[in-house]
Design brief:
Layout: H1 13-48, H2 51-87
Helix pairs in contact: 1-2
């Protein structure tokens, strides 16, 4: 009686990749729009002397950059785990 790993155990990996890819598209589009809006608000608020709004817009800009970076890292992590799962 031999025991071998089930190489077909990661069923639906292609569907999971497509779902994550679609979610990544929505996150990246939202992050880019957030970057554009926050940059415009930061510029207008700085020019008009409203430093509280400029600080909040700058924070929003960094949040948008962080969201885009985390989305990219999440996809890389998922692809890594799926590849490791097929090798087990």
């Amino acid at each position: 009686m031999d025991v071998f790993p089930d190489f077909g155990g990661v069923g639906g990996a292609a569907e999971l990749r497509s779902i994550v890819g679609a979610l990544l598209m929505f996150v990246l589009v939202t992050a880019v729009l957030m970057l554009i809006v926050c940059a415009i608000i930061w510029a207008v608020a700085s020019a008009s002397g409203n430093y509280q709004a400029a600080t909040k817009a700058r924070t929003g800009l960094w949040v948008g950059v962080g969201a885009a970076a985390l989305a990219g890292a999440g996809v890389a992590w998922l692809n890594f785990l799926l590849d490791v799962g097929t090798q087990l």
